[in-house]
Amino acid sequence: MAADKTTIAKQFISAIPHAKALGMEFTKIESGVAEMRMPYDERFVGDPKTGVIHGGAVSALLDTTCGAAVMSHPKAPGGTATIDLRIDYMRAATPGQALRTRAHCYRITKNVAFVRAEALDDDDEVPVATAAGAFTVEGLTQ
Amino acid sequence: MSPSKRPEPVQIVKQRRDAALNALVHGVPYIKFLGIEFDRRGDELTAVLPFSEKLIGNPFLPAIHGGVTAAFLEVTAIIGLSWAYLWDDIESGKFDAERLVSGDLPLLPKTIDFTVDYLRSGLPRDAYARAQINRSGRRYASVHVEAWQDNRHRAFAQGTGHFLMPQSNG
């Protein structure tokens, strides 16, 4: 059952046009934990002077990873939407390096899923950004 | 009473403001990637996000990706804040749009944190947003943004962010 849900979540997220447009890919998705990767791309730069990726692209990756974590949770019926998401930016992502995100759906109720996530580049020590959000719990199709 | 200076011709003023705005917006690759443009009326800016297939986050509904909505709000906040911060220099002519076009962008505010409330799903059509600067200090600024689609009074998302202002000298 859990494996099926993981497959569905993976297929669903991979079919998202915007996830494809940003070049996002899964590195792990399992029982409420999702990990994704987004290669560096000059089209996503927010500061042309330094080549640093725009915060908006980091937000999109974190939001997608959080949604995937909810969908893969054993207690989730399958579908989800973001209620709110807060992102803290610790530092600029290093230009040229891929971004890696990890999200954990640490609590799920009948109606709400709570998620925490972080984004890293090649440096494992200091995250580029962290996120905390609340998501809806709903069926895969409405 | 000293004779007041004759106001500049309207075209000159508009041209200067539009050149500054264009340079500010079009110099950022990610803004171009999402296709965001800004409408200007005096100093008031409205961000416009024309709908496109690549912005979809849920193909079944379909709905705009939550990450796109977050990025749209954040872009609106940063441009709105930069615009207000640069306004006096644009008006005085001190701000050189030509230099900007050649890639010499001014230092922009940096996002410290950003929180998005998703009020309803983003429909597959154009979206608009306006930023309101609630605090603008020498170091920190707090900005609120509202985004809507068909109806100005039915926002589909809102966001609040804190920003670190560019430090000209240490």
From TrEMBL, chain B:
One of its GO terms (molecular function) is thiolester hydrolase activity. Pfam families: 4HBT (PF03061). It comes from the Bacteria. Coiled coil: none annotated. This is PaaI family thioesterase. It comes from Thalassobius vesicularis. InterPro entries: HotDog_dom_sf, Thioestr_dom. Residues 64-153 form the Thioesterase domain.
